[in-house]
UniProtKB/TrEMBL annotation:
<keyword id="KW-0413">Isomerase</keyword>
<keyword id="KW-0479">Metal-binding</keyword>
<feature type="binding site">
    <location>
        <position position="33"/>
    </location>
    <ligand>
        <name>a divalent metal cation</name>
    </ligand>
</feature>
<feature type="binding site">
    <location>
        <position position="31"/>
    </location>
    <ligand>
        <name>a divalent metal cation</name>
    </ligand>
</feature>
<feature type="binding site">
    <location>
        <begin position="195"/>
        <end position="196"/>
    </location>
    <ligand>
        <name>substrate</name>
    </ligand>
</feature>
<comment type="function">
    <text>Catalyzes the reversible epimerization of D-ribulose 5-phosphate to D-xylulose 5-phosphate.</text>
</comment>
<feature type="binding site">
    <location>
        <begin position="140"/>
        <end position="143"/>
    </location>
    <ligand>
        <name>substrate</name>
    </ligand>
</feature>
<keyword id="KW-0119">Carbohydrate metabolism</keyword>
<comment type="similarity">
    <text>Belongs to the ribulose-phosphate 3-epimerase family.</text>
</comment>
<feature type="binding site">
    <location>
        <position position="8"/>
    </location>
    <ligand>
        <name>substrate</name>
    </ligand>
</feature>
<protein>
    <recommendedName>
        <fullName>Ribulose-phosphate 3-epimerase</fullName>
        <ecNumber>5.1.3.1</ecNumber>
    </recommendedName>
</protein>
<feature type="active site" description="Proton donor">
    <location>
        <position position="173"/>
    </location>
</feature>
<dbReference type="InterPro" id="IPR026019">
    <property type="entry name" value="Ribul_P_3_epim"/>
</dbReference>
<dbReference type="GO" id="GO:0004750">
    <property type="term" value="F:D-ribulose-phosphate 3-epimerase activity"/>
</dbReference>
<comment type="pathway">
    <text>Carbohydrate degradation.</text>
</comment>
<feature type="binding site">
    <location>
        <position position="64"/>
    </location>
    <ligand>
        <name>substrate</name>
    </ligand>
</feature>
<dbReference type="InterPro" id="IPR013785">
    <property type="entry name" value="Aldolase_TIM"/>
</dbReference>
């Protein structure tokens, strides 16, 4: 299973987003954090910026919607050019219907869980998704320290994915760095969002390559990957 590295533009220079997107063109996806100052206590960007970014880079956009009422707004991000759209389980009124609508518009459908939200109640929904995001910090701000207590949840999520034989990507977001990515990979994650670890580096493209190498090295021998 291939490791994927998704740099988060939340840690980029917003005054030069097109250049910042080009600086990580070796990445698999560009992670776009959308915050509405309601679901989370921060305000970032919306549909017009996603439209502009989709024209400025060939790297596909992975939009993480930390917003209220994703049932209404998520489809607009697909139309704006997002290749993957993630809504929060805690905010979606009808997650299955929403996932199907995102897929019907041509994007990958993903669902995110806050640190305190367990995966088990959503087991039956997993076949409706292309990716599941386990937050490894509280959503809302970049640069937070990785929460080690999320590692068992990543393991349980990977076990459920394997139990149902799903080709479901397992993403982690929050505090992912050279110091933490191997633990996440060993626990079962295969898609890694990295903000400060990439855009805080002198060479963002080199940081992406280094993170990929570290995660790939662990995944090659991880019990979950071998079983898969």
């Amino acid at each position: 299973m291939a490791v994927q590295i998704n740099p988060s533009i939340l840690s980029a220079d917003f005054s030069r987003l097109a250049e910042e997107a080009k600086a990580v063109e070796g990445a698999d996806w560009l992670h776009v954090d959308v915050m509405d100052n309601h679901f989370v206590p921060n305000l970032t960007l919306g549909v017009p910026i996603v439209e502009s970014l989709s024209r400025a880079t060939d790297t596909p956009l992975d939009c993480h919607l930390m917003i209220e009422d994703p049932d209404r707004w998520a489809p607009q991000y697909v139309e704006a050019g997002a290749g993957s759209v993630t809504f929060h389980a805690e905010a979606a009124a009808a997650p299955v219907r929403l996932a199907r609508e995102i897929r019907s518009k041509g994007a990958r459908a993903s669902m995110a869980l806050k640190p305190a939200t367990p995966i088990e109640p959503y087991e039956d929904l997993l076949p409706e998704l292309d990716m599941l995001l386990v937050m490894t910090v509280e959503p809302g701000f970049g640069g937070q320290a990785f929460l080690d207590i999320m590692l068992p949840k990543i393991r349980r999520t990977r076990e459920l994915i394997s139990k149902h034989g799903l080709e479901l990507w397992l993403q982690v977001d929050g505090g992912v760095s050279e110091a933490t990515i191997e633990r996440c990979a060993e626990a079962g994650a295969d898609v890694f969002v990295a903000g400060s670890a990439v855009y805080g580096a002198e060479d963002p493209a080199a940081a992406v390559r280094m993170l990929r190498e570290k995660a790939t090295g662990v995944t090659a021998s991880a019990a979950w990957a071998c079983a898969h």
